[in-house]
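Both lines are retained for reference:
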Amino acid sequence: MDFLMISLQVALAAISLLLILLILLHKGRGGGMSDMFGGGVTSSLGSSGVAERNLTRLTISLGIIWGVIIVALALIIQINVES
């Protein structure tokens, strides 16, 4: 059980860092914090519609996996406390 918990925690840390990176790669929509800190400047990185859609899909998928890992860790901790 300890190996599973440690591996889930490592996966959670890695996915958290990936989510931060992927969210920062998204193109700013304007009118918010992104414009205030220079995010309103157009870049060629997010200019493709297909690339932006794939980036969004990957971000949502990793977010769902992140949530599942959080729930799994909570269940493991609850089982360990009850035993």
